[in-house]
Amino acid sequence: MNSLPLLVTALLAAPRHLLAEEQFNFPPPEFSRPYVFPDTPTPAPRPEWLGVADVVVLAVALALAAYFGLRTRSRRHLVVLTGFSLLYFGFYKKGCVCAVGAVQNVAMALGPEQYALPLVVGLFFILPLVFALFWGRAFCSSVCPLGAVQELVLLRPLKVPVWLNSALALLPALYLGLGVLFAAAGSTFIICRYDPFVQVFRFGGGTLMVFIGIAVILLSVVVGRPYCRYACPYGFLLGLLSPFSREKVRITTGDCINCHLCADACPYGAIQPPTPAPQYLPRAAERKRLGLLIALLPVLVIVGGGLVRLASPLLARADYRVRLAAQVWQEEQGKLTDPTDETEAFAKRGVPTSDAYVAALQVHRRYATGSWFLGGWLGLVLGLRLVSGSVRRHRSIYQINQSACVVCGRCYHYCPLDRQRGLSLTDAPQEDQS
Q1: 114-172 pLDDT, tens per residue?
Q2: What ranges in 198-282 are assigned the alpha helix state H?
Q3: Phi-psi region at 422: left, alpha or beta (left = phi > 0; alpha = psi -120 to 50)
Q4: What is the predicted pLDDT for the residue at 214?
Q5: What's the DSSP call for residue 271?
Q6: 141 with 225: CB under 8 angstroms?
Q7: For the chain, which ranges sit under pLDDT 50?
Q8: Is 314 in contact with 178 (CB distance < 8 Å)?
Q9: φ and ψ at residue 400, rounded to 5 degrees
Q10: From residue 297, how far is each of 290, 303, 366 by CA, in Å?
Q11: What pLDDT is stored for residue 432 in this prediction?
Q12: Measured distance CA(269)–CA(403) in Å, rounded
């Protein structure tokens, strides 16, 4: 009689035990005691309330950047805010979450991986874009920690030739497309992995990235924000929206006298000089050329998509599932005798090797589709650049390129009209007050 309760308990516990065993794909590893946890390259998850606090700080910083950059036109206040952003978003938060990397989270959430986008990450992605629609690149001005590093070390800026600047300015579009493709396919976050500054914020990392980070910082001493201008994918998005902002950056609050001081002061080549007197060209010829370029747009999109599609097997190698399947196949064929850690872990799962091949095939299909979009995107960007370059514009005064301007406030110092009006006088550099 006493064994009956034990028997009932065992029968009730058995399904639960079996269900718990089925939750594991392979036996848990045998940890030695005491187990020493390894250092992780990424910061630990933050409590939810701290995430909300981060969003509030971001919103306040963006509002201050817009106010200092467009209303008070205070370079000094922008520099102070830049220093705060570097300390808070860079060193305190260790560069994560940031709006630049959040592009990949959004892309992954839109992809087939069934990834749920965290609310905080989504807000970090969308808030700077919303501000850009109203006040331009306030985020780049003094909120982004990546831009802050480069802004504060810039000592002797050199002018980048216009042709080189124009050519390199296409790289962020390529980087953005690759980052979105890799993230949407569930492969990797290359924008975060190859962030040259995150190693600095975390005081350590891989040797290669530490070296690259130091090299970019040294380059930033003489070239204004090289990462922002020639690599940052998020800056490219902000640059697309800024020309349509409700309130735009102005060089002067008065009438420009074409003194050229602002253009000399701008280290980013964002101030465009007056154009020469327009020469007479038959309008019919201009319209014909513009029409041909517009007609060429879909051709560039299709050709670009087709060319990148050819490279999709190579791009798919960025996914660990593809690399694993290739390694398993080579071991099965006897071409490789020494298993890797990945293939050993896969073997311990006890699943057939066909699972690895099926997973790799699914990834290849994603890249086959995504590479069309990537190539089409690149063709579209190139085509729009050609169309934009063919449109004749006449400028009688110096004007700001709203897409390229990061609202650093340097040009405010050098505008004699603002100095006469008493604006920015308190911000003026010491040498300018003499």
Answers
A1: 899 999 999 999 999 999 999 999 999 999 999 999 999 999 999 999 899 999 999 99
A2: 198-201, 207-220, 226-230, 233-241, 261-265
A3: left
A4: 93
A5: E
A6: no
A7: 1, 17-21, 425-426, 428-434
A8: no
A9: -90, 135
A10: 11, 10, 25
A11: 43
A12: 11
Consecutive H or E run containing 399 = strand 399-400
β-strand partners of 272: 399
**Locate tokens 């036996």: which residue?**
27
Pair 69, 141: CB distance under 8 Å = yes
| CA 142 to each of CA 37, 61, 215, 229, 231: distance values in angstroms, whole numbers, following the listed order | 37, 8, 22, 15, 18
Helix, strand, or coil here: 400?
strand
SS3 category, 214: helix
Handedness of CA 318, 320, 322, 324 (dihedral sign): positive
Alpha-carbon Rg for the chain in angstroms = 27
Q: Which residues contact 45 (CB under 8 A, 6 or more apart)?
A: none
Please count the other Cβ atoms lying within 10 Å of the Cβ belonging to residue 370. 24
- Can you tell me which residue has the tokens 């309130």? 247
Question: Residue 400 pairs with which residues in a beta bridge?
Answer: 271
Q: In 311-434, which residue ranges form alpha helices assigned H by DSSP?
A: 312-316, 320-332, 341-348, 353-390, 410-414, 416-420
Question: What pLDDT was estimated at residue 434?
Answer: 35
Handedness of CA 217, 60, 189, 370 (dihedral sign): negative
Please report, as a single letter, which amino acid is at residue 32. Answer: S
* Strand duo 271-272 + 399-400: pairing: antiparallel
Q: CA torsion angle for 376, 380, 382, 387 (degrees, to 10)?
A: 160
- Cα within 13 Å of Cα(297), Cβ side: 14
